[in-house]
């Protein structure tokens, strides 16, 4: 019997892909639940007034669609059979991979699955120092692999670049590998896996074609963390980053790509997918069997999923298969229009892009020209507008669908507005940016975004700039934020940037990500974690940590990049940065980021290090 209040017509259901159709057909028919989940289609909640309010707020269908894994109608997502297997196969066809696995616990889990499927203890892994903490956890702590790190750079505004091209030289990398394991360094492919960021949190895409040419011969596999990507297949300008579309041969590495479908694709929060492309090396000893990947998958997932999440992944695949190119063309066009409005209306807050292209201002170009000519998005060696001193032509490109704004400088003192203050102001106006750092703030452009949304953002930023020029009191601009000081906005901003320059934050940041300053690692991350779990650690005051071995990664969030990994030694440079952050938090408490791995005790910061006395 149909639940008429919440049902869909047969014609509507037939338009949906197999898994989603089966789920909704089952969910929207009346049934007697004697299985899990225990709320039994919301009936448990409806026994109370508060529960009724809860079900009303979320909508009855959210509970009707929460069905048991005992149902045989939706296939078996854990063995990838039936309609659930068909959903993953459609995603693989859509992105041109050999195999796709839907993960309902986020790309942190996807990265750990990939690392644990490929890496064994003491393997060598080529490791982007910009990697998300989950890749550290999977490769270095869980698997116990040993890393050869790839360095990068921060520009004057603190923008994160992709990779330093100096690290793409095979002889250089073999020497680095030999310092860790001389025998492995002599192998044709010394690295079992390379773990790289396909797209950075600051909105730069890595040229995967160049990476395959330079690093591919050294690696069995490359894992491209595409948490902040996924649409490169559908935007022609990004063709050199769309690694799953490349024709691959027996000399190429196997490819894994993880995607946070919930970030910029059409998925619910937590949804992610893993793509595997390695049929070109099938039969070789280095080839990863699907069964091993699936075993790692089962070790990391829940066997009691919320199936609407899975349906969202299938719907994402269907939408991209049928409409992907036109939808992302629309999003790209929206981002161009927004950038042009920002350039026209703002003075202190500026989009991160080349100001002059082909002798004209960026904003004077035609939309189609911007969408098709890489010069409008390139990070080049000779045109140094971007401020990266180690740039190589073609290695990095501005993400067309991430609008990064800069509002000041870390390198040289100039008038600007603190990005955390901009973020707070926008949120007070009902506008939510993705994230902010010291003087950068990020916005995501998506299919479905409308011009009215862009106008409201530009208007709010213009109002803030006007308040800045008039030096109005912060309490007047943000009356609901009592934690901000009684100060005029221009005075607060001046104090903010003077503080950052006085503390030499630009040099501190670049030191942390340059190879000559990488910390020593007296033990693997896995060993450090085992010692911590077995009681061989102690809490050390942060100020006394220099020279001690870290048992826990330490990182500011965002962006979730480890500045010190478990098993590494606290250096003077790393300690200086975290001591600066503590001082920054005291000076500007409303702007302080979350720092994972710093623990407060009686108001003072402590870190976990290896005990001097391990007895």
TrEMBL record:
Lineage, highest ranks first = Bacteria, Bacillati, Bacillota, Negativicutes, Veillonellales
Q: Name one GO biological process term.
A: amino acid metabolic process
Q: Which PROSITE patterns match?
A: OKR_DC_1
- Give the UniProt family note: Belongs to the Orn/Lys/Arg decarboxylase class-I family.
The cellular component terms of Gene Ontology attached to this UniProt record, alphabetical and capped at eight, are: cytosol
State the PANTHER family in the record.
Answer: BIODEGRADATIVE ARGININE DECARBOXYLASE (PTHR45229:SF3), CONSTITUTIVE ORNITHINE DECARBOXYLASE (PTHR45229)
- Tell me the GO molecular function terms: carboxy-lyase activity; pyridoxal phosphate binding
Q: Write down what this protein is called.
A: Ornithine decarboxylase
The Orn/Lys/Arg decarboxylases family 1 pyridoxal-P attachment site domain extends over 258-272
Is-annotated flag, keyword Lyase? yes
UniProt KW keywords: Decarboxylase, Lyase, Pyridoxal phosphate
Asked whether the keyword rRNA-binding is assigned, the reply is no
């Amino acid at each position: 019997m149909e639940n008429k209040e919440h049902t869909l017509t047969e014609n509507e259901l037939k338009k949906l892909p197999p898994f989603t159709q089966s789920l909704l057909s089952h969910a929207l028919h009346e049934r007697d639940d004697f299985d899990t989940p225990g709320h039994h289609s919301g009936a448990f909640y409806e026994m109370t007034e508060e529960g009724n309010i809860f079900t009303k707020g979320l909508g009855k269908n959210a509970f009707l669609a929460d069905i048991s894994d005992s149902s045989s109608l939706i296939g078996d997502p854990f063995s990838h059979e039936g309609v659930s297997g068909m959903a993953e196969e459609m995603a693989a066809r859509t992105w041109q991979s050999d195999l796709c696995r839907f993960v309902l616990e986020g790309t942190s889990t996807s990265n750990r699955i990939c690392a644990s499927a490929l890496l064994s203890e003491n393997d060598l892994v080529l490791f982007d120092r910009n990697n998300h903490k989950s890749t550290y956890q999977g490769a270095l702590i869980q698997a116990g692999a040993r890393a050869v790190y790839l360095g990068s750079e921060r520009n004057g505004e603190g923008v994160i670049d992709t990779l330093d091209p100096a690290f793409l030289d095979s002889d250089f990398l073999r020497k680095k590998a030999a310092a860790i394991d001389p025998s492995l360094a002599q192998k044709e492919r010394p690295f079992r896996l390379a773990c790289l960021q396909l797209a950075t949190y600051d909105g730069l895409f890595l040229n995967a074609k160049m990476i395959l040419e330079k690093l591919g011969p050294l690696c069995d596999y490359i894992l491209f963390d595409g948490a902040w990507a996924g649409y490169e297949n559908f935007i022609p300008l990004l063709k050199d980053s769309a690694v799953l579309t490349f024709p691959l041969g027996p000399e190429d590495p196997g490819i894994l790509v993880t995607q946070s479908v919930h970030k910029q694709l059409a998925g619910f929060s937590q949804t992610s997918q893993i793509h595997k492309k390695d049929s070109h090396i099938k039969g070789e000893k280095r080839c990863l069997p699907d069964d091993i990947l699936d075993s790692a998958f089962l070790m990391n997932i829940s066997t009691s999923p919320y199936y609407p999440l899975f349906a969202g992944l299938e719907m994402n695949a269907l939408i991209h298969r049928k409409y992907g190119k036109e939808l992302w063309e629309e999003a790209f066009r929206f981002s161009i229009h927004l950038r042009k409005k920002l350039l026209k209306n703002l003075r202190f807050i500026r989009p991160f892009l080349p100001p002059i292209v082909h002798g004209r201002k960026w904003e004077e170009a035609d939309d189609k020209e911007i969408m098709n000519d890489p010069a409008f998005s390139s990070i080049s060696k000779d045109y140094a507008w971007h401020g990266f001193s180690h740039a190589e032509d073609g290695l990095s490109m501005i993400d067309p669908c991430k609008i990064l704004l800069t509002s000041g400088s870390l390198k040289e003192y100039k008038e600007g507005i603190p990005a955390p203050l901009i973020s707070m102001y926008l949120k007070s106006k009902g506008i939510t940016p993705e994230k902010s750092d010291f003087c950068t703030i990020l916005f995501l452009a998506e299919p479905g975004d409308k011009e009215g949304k862009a106008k409201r953002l530009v208007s709010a930023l213009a109002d803030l700039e006007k308040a800045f020029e008039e030096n109005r009191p912060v309490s007047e601009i943000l009356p609901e934020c009592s934690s901000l000081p009684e100060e005029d906005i221009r005075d607060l901003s001046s104090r903010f940037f003077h503080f950052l320059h006085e503390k030499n934050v630009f040099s501190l940041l670049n030191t942390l990500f340059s190879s000559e300053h990488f910390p020593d690692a007296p033990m693997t991350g896995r060993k450090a974690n085992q010692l911590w779990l077995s009681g061989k650690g102690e809490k050390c005051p942060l100020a006394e940590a220099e020279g001690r071995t870290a048992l826990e990664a330490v990182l500011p969030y965002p962006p979730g990049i480890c500045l010190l990994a478990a098993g590494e030694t606290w250096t003077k440079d790393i300690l200086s940065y975290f001591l600066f952050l503590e001082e920054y938090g005291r000076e500007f408490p409303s702007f302080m980021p979350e720092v994972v791995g710093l623990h407060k005790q009686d108001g003072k910061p402590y870190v976990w290090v290896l005990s001097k006395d391990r007895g």
